[in-house]
From TrEMBL:
Gene field: glmS
EC number(s) recorded for this UniProt protein: 2.6.1.16
Enzyme class, UniProt record, top EC level: transferase
Name listed for the protein in its UniProt record: Glutamine--fructose-6-phosphate aminotransferase [isomerizing]
Organism: Mariprofundus ferrinatatus
GO MF annotation terms: carbohydrate derivative binding; glutamine-fructose-6-phosphate transaminase (isomerizing) activity
Keywords: Aminotransferase, Cytoplasm, Glutamine amidotransferase, Repeat, Transferase
UniProt-listed GO biological process terms: amino sugar biosynthetic process; carbohydrate metabolic process; fructose 6-phosphate metabolic process; protein N-linked glycosylation; UDP-N-acetylglucosamine metabolic process
Reactions catalysed according to its record: D-fructose 6-phosphate + L-glutamine = D-glucosamine 6-phosphate + L-glutamate
SIS domain segment(s): 42-181, 213-353
Role, per record: Catalyzes the first step in hexosamine metabolism, converting fructose-6P into glucosamine-6P using glutamine as a nitrogen source.
Primary location recorded for the protein, binned into one broad class: cytoplasm
One Gene Ontology cellular component: cytosol
Protein's cellular compartments: Cytoplasm
Active site: 358 (for fru-6p isomerization activity)
Length: 363
């Protein structure tokens, strides 16, 4: 039942504060991670993890790419690959390597094949971050870490993505503990997660402004999404959402790559979307955006209060102060809403876009 919402996708976007809380429930308390909630087997696997290989498809792959930044930040080497590539190549598995699959459905054919193939590859074990308890991935993995997003009906994944990121952030704290994360650092990370549902609520209140932005977007044929650091995979996810449901060709680039090719595409008809969090790469991104402006590209920016943009023309939406650790999660929300409103204006079938299936159970 969609309730008051026009589409399941919109309903699922609005469910995010609740399902994020749900995913945190019983797993954190007073600034600490409650590791006992992971179960003994999971804890034992994490104890011997020296490297993480993440394998997933689509949106779940993007969640893995964000997690790589997080894991490496606390000292854990991590590789991430799409399952359809991973499964068909010879892989060299470093010792002490844990395989993590990420999947909403737990039935994605390539991800499942990658897991099955991994048994002979020398991993210490497999962990799945999954949303469906009775799925094949949950059954066949050594251990699982459930997201609690509830049933996701819209083909375009939204609440599954943000809860995957929450789960991966919790795993980062758990692994970080084994790599010298201090009590103060843990407390900061956990408190950020604790505030996340409220932060998402605040962003959802900007929906009307995002709808206005979307009206300037719906006649476009192409779009570039830029980001740096963990906001590059956030840009990839934003571009995927837009292309999936609005059929506008959208590509994501790490902003620093502009000069190496994509800048040639930029003129007055090329909108550029970018999340501009207050982080150490901000100045770099601003100078990349300056290059876009100099070629007439139209800018659609999402930033937070502390950011002084200082460019000549742009549309922007200012979010309240966002914590750095969970910022990739928070900044994903306006991109979901942008894609949604563009699709609604274009009149596409938002919940069931052409040519796509919710669960990709064949290659
Ligand atoms: O169920 P999974 O998370 O394994 O699905 C992976 C992809 O098929 C899925 O994320 C797809 O990219 C979505 N339609 C994106 O919105």
């Amino acid at each position: 039942d969609k309730g008051p919402y026009a589409h399941y996708m919109l309903k699922e976007i609005y469910e995010q504060p609740a399902v994020v809380s749900e995913t945190l429930e019983g797993r954190i308390h007073k600034g600490r991670l409650l590791e006992d909630s992971f179960g003994h087997e999971t804890k034992a696997l994490l104890d011997s993890t020296k490297h993480v290989q993440i394998v997933a498809c689509g949106t779940s792959y993007h969640a893995g790419l964000v997690a790589r930044y997080w894991l490496e930040e606390v000292g854990i080497p991590c590789s991430v690959e799409v399952a359809s590539e991973y499964r068909y190549r010879r892989v060299v598995v470093p010792s002490g390597s844990l395989l993590i699959t990420i999947s909403q459905s737990g039935e994605t054919a390539d991800t499942l094949a990658a897991l099955r193939g991994s048994r002979e590859q020398g991993y210490i074990g497999s962990l799945t971050v999954c949303n469906v308890p009775e799925s094949s991935l949950v059954r066949e993995s050594d251990v699982c870490f459930m997201t609690r997003a509830g049933t996701e009906i819209g083909v375009a994944s939204t609440k599954a993505f943000t809860t995957q990121l929450v789960a991966l952030r919790l795993l980062t704290v758990a692994l970080g503990r084994r790599y010298g994360l201090t009590t103060e650092q843990e407390e900061a990370m956990v408190n950020e997660l604790h505030s996340l549902p409220r932060q998402i609520e605040v962003v959802l209140e900007l929906a009307d402004e995002i709808q206005i932005m979307a009206s300037d977007f719906s006649d476009k044929h192409n779009a570039l999404f830029l980001g740096r650091g963990p906001f590059y995979p956030v840009a990839m996810e934003g571009a995927l959402k837009l292309k999936e449901i609005s059929y506008i060709h959208a590509e994501a680039y790490p902003a620093g790559e502009l000069k190496h090719g994509p800048l040639a595409l930029v003129d007055e008809s090329m909108p550029v979307v970018c999340a501009l969090p207050d982080d150490p790469l901000l100045e770099k991104v601003l100078s990349n955006l300056q290059e876009v402006r100099a070629r007439g590209g139209e800018l659609f920016l999402f930033s937070d209060h502390k950011v002084k943009i200082g460019l000549d023309r742009y549309q922007s939406l200012t979010l309240s102060d966002i914590f750095p650790g969970t910022a990739p999660i928070v900044y994903s929300i306006p991109l979901q809403l942008l894609a949604y409103h563009v699709a609604v204006i274009k009149g596409t079938d938002v919940d069931q876009p052409r040519n796509l299936a919710k669960s990709v159970t064949v290659e």
